[in-house]
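Q: what sequence does this backbone want?
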């Protein structure tokens, strides 16, 4: 597997993980705030009880999704700060799922001949793929450091 050694060709991998994590936190917070600002007037406008329940449930689900994304980015930052590879796993899984989702969306967009959406999903695939490679390279680096420390600890105990 091809791994990167720098983020955007000139920054450390740790800096890249911090950038991805903080950017994700900012986007998640803005998304939560905008969903609340949009959702409250929409819920107040609904007249039929069944529709209100569906709209309310939709906005709650969106809020929970953005909260989950916020926690994933927070674990990425904490994992980078503490050099703990296990804390980086949620971000790896999330970006891996994003890669698969963008491949599926590219295929669907090509089936319905939506050129703009195909290009958009291809860009999403490239960005998520690169972020995945950066996080995975840092994950392997931290895991290797942990194994070396553990091996030294075991040797000193013997």
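A:
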């Amino acid at each position: 597997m091809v791994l990167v050694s720098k983020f955007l060709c000139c920054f450390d991998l740790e800096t890249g993980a911090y950038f991805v994590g903080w950017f994700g936190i900012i986007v998640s917070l803005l998304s939560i705030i905008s969903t609340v600002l949009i959702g409250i007037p929409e819920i107040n406008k609904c007249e039929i009880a069944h529709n209100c329940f569906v709209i309310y449930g939709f906005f709650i689900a969106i809020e929970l999704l953005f909260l989950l994304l916020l926690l994933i980015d927070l674990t990425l930052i904490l994992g980078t700060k503490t050099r703990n590879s296990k804390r980086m796993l949620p971000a790896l899984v999330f970006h891996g799922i994003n890669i698969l989702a963008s491949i599926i969306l590219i295929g669907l967009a090509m089936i319905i001949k939506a050129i703009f959406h195909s290009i958009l999903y291809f860009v999403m695939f490239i960005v998520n793929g690169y972020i995945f490679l950066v996080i995975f390279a840092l994950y392997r680096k931290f895991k290797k450091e942990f194994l070396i420390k553990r091996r030294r600890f075991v040797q000193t105990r013997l």
